[in-house]
Input
Amino acid sequence: MKLFNDFFELLSNEQCDNIYRCQVKFNPDHRIYKAHFPGYPVTPGVCLMQMGEELLEQKYQKQLQLSVVKSIRFRKIVGPEDTPFFDFSNEVLKDDVLSVEVTIYDEEGESTKMSLLYNVLNEL
Output
């Protein structure tokens, strides 16, 4: 299930030196938040991973498939009212494999850090 323009929307994106930065806004009325968790909505970690993939697909204009989660750390809850930044760094695209470090944060600090590998499938 694609989340772009349904669960979240892109507010801004820019390339700064070796970091690709995106800011997003969640749809707080989305059905995911009604189930995860009623009365105390939390953005599921798997949705944060999917959002990162979709943001990279937009950047590269290629379909990606997550192949390896090298590491992932959740440091604080990301809620539906947050407008976090996704920083993509150490991007290496070689032999149809994309390696990337993803840091998700807001003005209060880092919430999630991921090191991921994607297979590059085809053009969007």
Observations:
- The mean pLDDT is 96.
- The radius of gyration is 14 Å.
- The first helix runs from residue 31 to 35.
